Amino acid sequence: MKKITIVLIPTIVAIAAFTAIQQNYLPLFSAANGSARFSAITNRAAEKTNGSYDIAQTGTGVAPPGDNTASQVDETALRYFARQGDQRRLEAEIARLRALYPNWTPPADPTATAPVADVALDEIWKLYSAGKLSEARRAIQEKQNNDPQWKPPADLLARLDLAEARERLVNASELKQYDAVVRLGSSNTALLTCDDVDSLWRVAEAFAQTNRAARAKDAYAYILDNCTKSEERLATVQKALPQLSQADLDELLKREKQRPDGTGEFDSIRDDLARKAIAAAGEDTQILVPQADLVRVEKLARDIVEPSDPLILGWYYFTRGDAQTAEKWFKLSHDRAKSASSSQGLALTMIAQSRFAEAERVIYEWRDNSDNAHAVYMAAVANLLAQDPPVQIAPVVLQRIVPEVMLAKDANAAQQLGWYAYLLNQFETASGWFSTALHWRPDDEPSSYGLVLARQQMGDVAEVAAIQKRWRGRSERIARLGEPNVGRSHQLVPMAERFGEPIKSETQPAELQTTTAALPSTHRVPLTPPSVADRVAATIARTPASVASVTPGGSTFPRALEVDRRQVPAAVHADVPARRRPPGSCATTVDPQTLTPESALVRGWCLMDLERPLEAAAAFERAALSNSESSRSDAAYGQSLAYLRVGLSDKAAVAASKARQQQSRQIELQIALLSAKATEAFNAGRMPEAVLALDQRARIAPERTDLMVLRGYAYMRMQRLSDAMRIFEAVAATGDKEGLKGISAVNSARRRDY
Questions:
Q1: Which comes out higher in pLDDT, residue 10 or 474?
Q2: What is the CATH number of domain 583-661?
């Protein structure tokens, strides 16, 4: 008995004829034909266990051949394939008929019209060949209605049955209905041969997904033992990778064949497995990697001009504390193709080796690529500023550091800027940075200590007393500041005193406490570095490990810190403590037209602090008349944010266009405007417009979870339930309960439709 091979290409079914008796003979479930291994998968009775059926020994629905004569042979398919010029199928059909009818002889000219031609039957074969199965069924029915005595060939019916069965099997597999895949494979064993290896793959996957790993392994092993096409054998092991354990994969790899050039057919698989092992070890230092795998991947990293292999080696060595070796691999990856991941890794190795300026330069370009990259950048900045003794930092570097600190609201980096300014005798600037750090982290004792020292140097007795009162009982060094042998000159602030526990006495200084940055965790795809948090906690200390006196550098250091805050985007001025502004600057109502543009700009930001955005918008309108291009840009930016705060996105868009903006501001405003536009359109019931705005926003920024939820409900209202389900499933995967609610809503909508 032979088999049908049917290959689905999307929804089109291309057919092949029953094949001859060969290595992949149809009865796969009989040990007699050399298929004992695969028989072990399915020879257990068709039992229903936990709601699923196992494959059992069943036939194909085609009766076995008897003592049929040549006159009984249906040559319709053979002649059809011949007329179509399909030599492969013609030969397979001849082999099939010879196996079924040993006394049959093929016609000398199969292209010739049969003695009794049946045009309708020929048309049915044509429909079948084109994959139009339902149309072929209808044509059969119509012919029977017209000619009740006519019976369709059993061969044709068997082929249709098998083709439809494969269609159902593929659909069940695509829908992840794995129990149905197993049942369909059980009922249609003629599908499970080397001529239809895709069906074998789907059945193997179904076994794996229904917790029958041994059956899955046997299915993959059957293919390797019986099928000869090299590309299918390689694909079989590739498909088994995510389904089987390492031990089962090792069993499959033993079936490898050698190529004529002496290489193994599964070498690429072994390469990927080695990569996978090293990538996993980059996440977990407890994982031991065989030396052979390490050697294999290092050779691949040198020989293949791709950035990925050096990258996983970099993370592997970095997590094991070998920063120098890790730097070599990260640099190789970075040189081949600059990326956020390689730059991040390279910067971390430089931080670990106290080369903070280099680290800041490497990661700066990628600082906004992800939360991890930005955290690494801030770690480089904090360490650069905290060096003991301090180093000269170029003004251009400071000018890019300051805005990033403000935008990130990074209390550690703000504190470091405070100490840096303090050591340059810029006490007012230092006071502002310490105050800013406390605004973001109110209970930060080191920042409070820096603030009280700066205020002491400024002669602000009242503020010093107020700070001491707030920290009484919590910080002895703040409380005792000014007492004999406790108060310190600004010219001598040891690192340990800046960052350590409060000092107890002059003779018992506090032990240095290392501060680390907790970097956010992120999901990574295979063969890329895992979360940075666990890797870098020990490398981003804010202070050196030694306790040494610091002497300020005097005039040799730039005084850029006092003016760099003008580079900060106006939107974050609200985060600067109020004492930085003139007292009572916006406490009362003032007509902005009576103010100078510069005063109106200051008042606008003050009003934003007080949550009075409409008044702020009027002040920014006046500020837009300034002769300074920078002030006009700040005014337009501020007015746009003010209108956004009250939901007037159209006015916000107009305001944003009144003056040129920095690229970062343009992007920020565009993101905010598109978010507002999407929300307004959704609330107004204009779902296509809402989705369009979200699509535009997604091109320039990752979509927030709340906007994903909005998108999901917009799809629902547009009756795009499948798209809505995809979105809600993605939200639910993050742990957000709104995703589960959305999934429930989609299911309810589907039930209503039915």
A1: 474
A2: 1.25.40
Tokens linked to 477: 């060094």
CA distance 309 to 301: 5
Tell me: pLDDT of 236 over 70: yes
| Token couple for 296 | 């294999």
Domain ranges of the chain: 5-187, 270-337, 361-536, 583-661, 667-754
* Under 8 Å between Cβ of 438 and 448: yes
What span, in angstroms and rounded, lies between the C-alpha atoms of 525 and 523? Answer: 7
Nearest to 393 by CA among 356, 425, 444, 434: 356
Q: 217 is written with which tokens?
A: 């392994």
The kind and range of the H/E element at 53 are strand 52-53
DSSP string, 579-629: GGS-TTTTSS---GGGS-HHHHHHHHHHHHHTT-HHHHHHHHHHHTT-S-H
Q: What is the pLDDT of residues 638-681, one digit of tens each?
A: 888 888 887 787 788 888 888 887 777 778 888 888 888 888 88
HSE at residue 364, side-chain half, CA atoms within 13 A, is: 18
d(CA 470, CA 479): 9
Q: Are 711 and 703 in contact (CB under 8 A)?
A: yes
Supply the pLDDT for residue 489. Answer: 43
Does this chain's domain 583-661 share its CATH topology with 667-754? Answer: yes
Q: Within 13 A of 394's CA, how many CA atoms are on the CB side? A: 7
Copy the structure tokens of residue 316.
């592997």
Q: How confident is the model at residue 205 (pLDDT cuts 50, 70, 90)?
A: very high
Please work out, in degrees rounded to the nearest 5, the angle formed at the alpha carbon of residue 369 by the alpha carbons of 364 and 375.
Answer: 65
Percentage of the chain modeled with pLDDT above 70: 76
Residues with Cβ < 8 Å from 501, sequence gap 6 or more? 510, 511, 513
Q: Which amino acid is at 517?
A: A
Task: Give the residue from 607, 571, 572, 634 showing the smallest Cα distance to 440.
Answer: 572
| pLDDT of the residue at 34 | 34
pLDDT tier at 433, thresholds 50, 70, 90: very high
Helix (H) or strand (E) holding 48: strand 48-49
Residue written as token pair 């982290």: 441
The answer to whether 5 and 193 have CB atoms below 8 angstroms apart is yes
Q: Dihedral (C-alpha) 641, 644, 648, 650: value to the nearest 10 degrees?
A: 70
Q: What is the DSSP pairing of strand 12-16 with strand 5-9?
A: antiparallel
Radius of gyration of the chain (CA): 37
Kindly tell me the number of DSSP H helices and DSSP E strands found in the chain. Answer: 35, 4
Q: How confident is the model at residue 734 (pLDDT cuts 50, 70, 90)?
A: confident
Among candidate residues 433, 332, 331, 449, the one with its CA nearest the CA of residue 381: 433
Q: Which two tokens stand for residue 499?
A: 């960052």
Q: Does domain 361-536 have CATH number 3.10.450?
A: no
Residue 680: CB atoms within 10 Å: 17
* Residues 520-575: tens digit of each pLDDT: 222 222 233 333 333 333 333 333 322 222 222 222 222 333 323 222 223 322 22
Q: Is the dihedral of CA 600, 602, 603, 604 positive or negative?
A: positive
Cis-peptide into 389, omega within 30 deg: yes
**Which residue type, as a one-letter code, is found at position 68?**
N
Residue positions counted in the chain: 754
Q: Which CATH number fits domain 667-754: 1.25.40.10, 2.120.10.30, 3.40.1280.10, 3.40.710.10?
A: 1.25.40.10
C-alpha span between 677 and 650 (Å, rounded): 8
H/E stretch holding 13: strand 12-16
Q: Which residue(s) pair with 667 in the sheet?
A: none
Q: pLDDT tens-digit profile of 303-356? A: 888 898 999 999 999 999 999 999 999 999 999 999 999 999 999 999 999 999
